[in-house]
Specification:
mainly alpha; Amino acid/polyamine transporter I; 2 domains; 22 helices
């Protein structure tokens, strides 16, 4: 095994850690009971639905990964191959532009939510006042940039630092979950009137189309990320097989984790908790047991947990961002130098650009709103608003991938059953409905703000304008760069040497998936032979020789010479 390649086990582990953390509880306050769109106990099934939709989309990615080039890019490769250069570029650009907002959410949850939550001794609002957010975000941006530079040390050191951050994250996360479980059982066995789940069902069970759309968009973000970590095809062992498997494994584990955590948190807390329940877990335990020290120690534990979690995400984002940019550079959508890979398949120049882009968008999404907050005294937007923005972008991306699956199914170019096609149609309709509800809410909010400037709501109104402005900026930039940067380069390339473009286009074709089909047949034959032995047939039963001949023929046709050699050796040993 090469230490410069991710095995299936590593890909699943790193993918799960990239997608999962405990900061998603920061949205609970506004979604459960802290806003006009709160949905209370309904959050449980909304989270379950999010897992179902995200897993369905992940299965589309897994299916496409088997019949497309297993190179860097993933969504870009599938879209470019099936829908052409323009759509490939737009989707790739949209996917890349999600990363800066993801970084913003990670910086925000790493520092600001820990140090700017009233009710804990970590609260710094008494020192900085309205400018607390600005001070904390500047610190968070600095720490995040340092973590992102780990990728320049190489894959081996990258893995070491990543493992260290993951160990810290999970050791503290386990302590948090144990603390929540204690509060959960203490509350669940109390009187019916004091049971938090019963209270939520009784007092906070309202649901409307708008509140559902808001909650779904905010929570769907936490299921997104698999389409980002699978862009590193060149850094994965046997990507044509391991990428698809890792997606399914990661999504199943992630869904179970989120549903379990959401359930115990909602049962453990009442409306008394603030916007960071993770830190308050230990404060509640300390109060219940008359041991204030537990609150202080627990707060520091969660502080280290959150820092480790976000530093780990920062390191991984640096790797993934380069993998997204590299194929774009190779085809000429961005400067060619950004596509250069070193001996470890790391796009170092692309990583430098990513640091710059991250800094610019941190200014847009963090520093600018922090200044508004400092001047007006009103928060520009909250964590749920940021996760909602990312969730909508991911839904647009997933919708395109679902359309590609439907296209290939109708063209009979990909194996798919009637149930799969119906499910994909449901996914597309549902995702489009959510996108519509999101933008309808944004336009209604902007219209309401313009008609009632005298009652300006700093937080909600700023959110509407930034969300719409950011989306328009992304689409306009993608279109303009395609027309005024890529097309002139494309025409010049055709005029100079058409064979160059022919070679590039050859990379975006569907691949022969015989290797995967043949191995499935091998598995069926092995199962048949094993089953025959169990029911008492003799070693020389009638079809044993036929089964061996079929398997030998399949192994000889195997394109992977190394795999074929191992399979033949195993077959001889069984004989």
């Amino acid at each position: 095994m090469s230490s410069q390649k991710f095995t299936l086990r590593e890909l699943v582990w790193y993918g799960f850690n990239y997608m999962v953390g405990v900061t998603f509880t920061a949205v609970f306050y506004s979604l459960v009971w802290g806003s006009k769109d709160a949905i209370g106990i309904n959050l449980l099934w909304v989270m379950a639905l999010g897992g179902l939709v995200a897993t369905g989309c992940a299965m589309c990615f897994a299916k496409l990964s088997k019949i497309h080039n297993a190179d860097n890019g993933a969504a870009y490769i599938y879209t470019r191959t099936q829908l052409g250069k323009f759509m490939g570029w737009v989707i790739s650009f949209l996917q890349y532009m999600c990363l800066p907002i993801i970084v913003v959410s990670q910086i925000m949850s790493m520092v600001r939510i820990n140090f700017n939550s009233p009710g804990t001794f970590l609260f710094l609002g008494d020192y900085f006042g309205n400018w607390t957010g600005l001070a904390l975000d500047l610190f968070g941006i600095t720490i995040y940039m340092i973590a992102s530079m780990v990728i320049f040390l190489g894959i081996k050191k990258f893995k070491k630092f990543l493992k260290m951050a993951i160990y810290i994250k999970w050791s503290s996360t386990i302590l948090l979950i144990l603390g929540v479980l204690v509060l959960f059982f203490m509350n669940i066995f109390s009187s019916t009137e004091g049971n938090n789940l019963v209270n939520l069902a009784r007092d906070h069970s309202t649901l409307s189309v708008t509140s559902f759309a808001t909650a779904f968009a905010s929570t769907f973000f936490f299921y997104a990320g698999f389409e980002t970590y699978i862009t590193v095809g060149k850094n994965v062992e046997k990507p044509e097989k391991n990428i698809a498997r890792s997606i399914i494994y990661v999504m199943l584990i992630t869904t179970v984790f989120y549903l379990f955590t959401t359930f115990i948190f909602m049962g453990a807390f009442s409306e008394a908790f603030n916007k960071n329940p993770n830190i308050q877990v230990f404060s509640f335990l300390g109060n219940d047991w008359n041991m204030k020290t537990i609150g202080y120690v627990g707060a520091f534990i969660m502080l280290f947990c959150t820092m480790a979690l976000k530093l780990q995400a920062g390191m991984q984002n640096a790797l993934f961002s380069g993998a997204i940019l590299e194929p774009q550079a190779r085809e000429g959508f961005i400067p060619d130098q950004l596509g250069e890979l070193d001996e470890e398949n790391i796009a170092r120049k692309a990583n430098v650009v990513n640091l710059i882009v991250t800094g610019v968008f941190a200014l847009i999404w963090l520093i600018f709103p922090d200044i508004i907050t400092g001047v007006t005294g009103k928060p520009a937007f909250d964590y749920a608003a940021i996760t909602g923005q990312i969730g909508i972008f991911e839904m647009i991306l997933y919708s395109v991938i679902v359309v590609i699956c439907l296209k290939l199914a109708f063209e009979k170019k990909m194996q798919s059953g009637l149930f799969q096609v119906i499910f994909w149609m449901f996914l597309f309709a549902f995702l489009m409905w959510q996108v519509y509800e999101f933008f309808a809410g944004v336009f209604n909010g902007i219209n309401g703000t313009l008609n009632h400037l005298d009652a300006y709501d700093g937080q909600q109104s700023t959110t509407y304008f930034i969300e719409l402005g950011y989306f328009i900026l992304i689409i306009a930039t993608a279109i303009c760069s395609y027309m005024f940067y890529y097309l002139p380069k494309y025409r010049a390339r055709l005029a100079k040497d058409p064979s160059i473009q022919v070679k590039l286009d050859a990379e975006f074709t569907m691949v022969d998936d015989w290797a995967l089909v043949s191995r499935e047949i091998e598995n069926y034959i092995d199962e048949y032979v094993a089953r025959s032995k169990k029911i008492g047939l003799k070693p020389d039963f009638a079809y044993r020789e036929t089964a061996n001949k079929i398997k030998d023929t399949i192994i000889n046709s195997e394109p992977d010479i190394e795999y074929a050699s191992r399979a033949k050796k195993t077959l001889l040993e069984k004989e």
